[in-house]
Amino acid sequence: MKENFLTIRKTLIISGLLFGLLLLASWFSISVGAVAIPFREVLKFFTGGVIDESSKTILLSIRIPRVLLAIIVGGGLSVAGVVFQALLRNPLAEPFILGVSSGGTFGAVLVISFGVGASLVSIPAASFIGALIVMVVVYSIAEKYGQVESTTLLLTGIMVGAFFNAMILFTIAIRHQEARGAFLWLMGNLSIADLQTILIVGPIILVAVFIVFLFSRQYNLIATGEETASHLGVKVEKLKKVSYLLASLITGLAVSVS
Asked: 81, 137, 171, 250: most buried by Cβ count inside 10 Å?
């Protein structure tokens, strides 16, 4: 009992410190930029005080949306990584190694390069579809007799990810005139961050993350071994499929806006 209490206490302390660092980094990001906004002005803004209109516009239109989107994207990708690590019981597993992010990127690049209704909705949708296709392909190749070995899945993910990276370069090469936007997008940035983007992408990622947290007990049981987890009532294969779908959704959306 005492050991459990100490573990919970340690977790709360570490979580509190990390949350404090996140707030500090966010505050710094909001204040620093091409136009410096003093810390006291930012504090005045959040406490309902009056600040000049130019600073208010910069905060509301540029810096606060970018910080919020960065938190959502970073948090979402970290949760997706934890899902892969928990299910594969491998600390190396994450969306980039498994090729999921490459699939998401390829979907977005196709939409941007061919101009198939490139918009705030179509790019995230294409990115999710690309990420999901890669996850299905990787899982199907690695599956044998209804079971998936983590090592096989990792190696398959690296192989499929390399293929889709090549397809990204090929698409840009054959559509070089139209793909300028895609090339700039590949460099990665949060310049598209605005309230509309956050309202579209944010809730979906947050709901997916919340569902993942509901499965945390099952993930802990899987860490002891799939056979043990199955004996304890966990429907392992069903959990894997749902979790991979959620992780692909999070990764695809995160990649599409960053």
From this structure: 250
